[in-house]
Inverse folding.
């Protein structure tokens, strides 16, 4: 990991609007790291993925949980991408299949639920 990657910050900007049109809940972030322009990224947590996360966390799959899960899973997704030096697009989707491939996202939501 480079120094710039180590100094990168993933900041939650707030809930996004219109995510329900795409079948999910949106969380907006800004990634700040030295030597790069700030990058705005919208992360959409699909409803099926939110339902799986609610079951894993032992919580009700309601709007408040979905908003929190989108924030927590999105932040974990982006932080891992920055740490690996990946190119991050302005829009990312976390699906149920993504959760099976990336169990650390489930762990991030469980930890945030505790």
């Amino acid at each position: 990991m480079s120094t710039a990657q180590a100094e990168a910050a993933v900041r939650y900007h707030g809930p996004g609007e219109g995510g329900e049109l795409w079948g999910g809940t949106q969380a907006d972030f800004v990634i700040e790291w030295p030597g790069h322009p700030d990058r705005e990224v919208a992360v959409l947590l699909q409803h099926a993925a939110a339902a799986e996360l609610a079951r894993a966390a032992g919580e009700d799959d309601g709007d408040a949980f979905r908003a929190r899960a989108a924030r927590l899973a999105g932040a974990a997704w982006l932080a891992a991408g920055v740490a690996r030096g990946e190119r991050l697009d302005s829009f990312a989707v976390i699906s149920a299949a993504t959760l099976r491939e990336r169990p650390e996202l489930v762990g991030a939501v469980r930890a945030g639920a505790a």
